[in-house]
Backbone:
């Protein structure tokens, strides 16, 4: 089994690449999706997060409001590190279990947004970096996620120091400034090379 990370900064198109891989029947672990499970009230991690960040991160139904939490952690580097220290080890446990479950597959993927930051680079056999121009990323965040330009630029700025390290560790780069068809073609070519 070859373990392959799909990484890149926000709005580069990691999730789209993951969808295209799944359409080709490739197993893909989604770290962001798994983190959503950790934020649910029924998960033991919920209480740890609320204890760390206070009840002001809860919505009217007593659930963690991810947007409120994001506003806190993207404006304060120490708070962001604190959240990552709570969540990352649990995500890594889930990812390792996923890989064990799919150990008979020749290629197994994980969509890992903060690969460098989580210190998992050496865990993977290959690292696929999905990238796009800053203008494209800002436009996507504004159109798809409803961010203001200021919010989008703040998100990008918080990840900038990792983008250089990502490029150095990448074994393949997919530039995603074009159409979905072009990206699909690039994913097909990547799979043939892997």
Residues:
């Amino acid at each position: 089994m070859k373990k392959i990370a799909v990484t890149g900064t926000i709005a580069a198109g990691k999730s789209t690449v993951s969808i295209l891989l799944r359409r080709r029947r490739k197993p893909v672990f989604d770290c962001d999706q798994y983190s959503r499970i950790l934020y649910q009230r029924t998960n033991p991690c919920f209480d740890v997060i609320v204890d760390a960040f206070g009840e002001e991160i809860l919505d009217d139904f007593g659930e963690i409001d991810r947007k409120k939490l994001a506003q806190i952690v993207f404006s304060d580097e120490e708070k962001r590190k604190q959240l990552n220290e709570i969540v990352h080890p649990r995500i890594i446990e889930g990812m390792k279990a996923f890989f064990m479950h799919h150990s008979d597959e020749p290629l197994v993927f994980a969509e890992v947004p903060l690969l460098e930051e989580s210190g998992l680079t050496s865990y993977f056999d290959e690292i696929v970096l999905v990238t796009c121009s800053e203008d494209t990323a800002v436009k996507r965040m504004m159109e798809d996620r409803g961010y203001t330009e200021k919010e989008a630029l703040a998100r990008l700025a918080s990840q900038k120091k990792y983008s250089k390290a990502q490029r150095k560790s990448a074994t393949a780069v997919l530039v995603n400034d074009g159409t979905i068809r072009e990206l699909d073609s690039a994913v097909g070519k990547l799979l043939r090379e892997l």
Q: What stands out?
A: The CA atoms of residues 56 and 68 lie 8 Å apart. The longest strand covers residues 2-7. Residues 2-189 form a domain with the Rossmann fold fold (CATH 3.40.50.300).
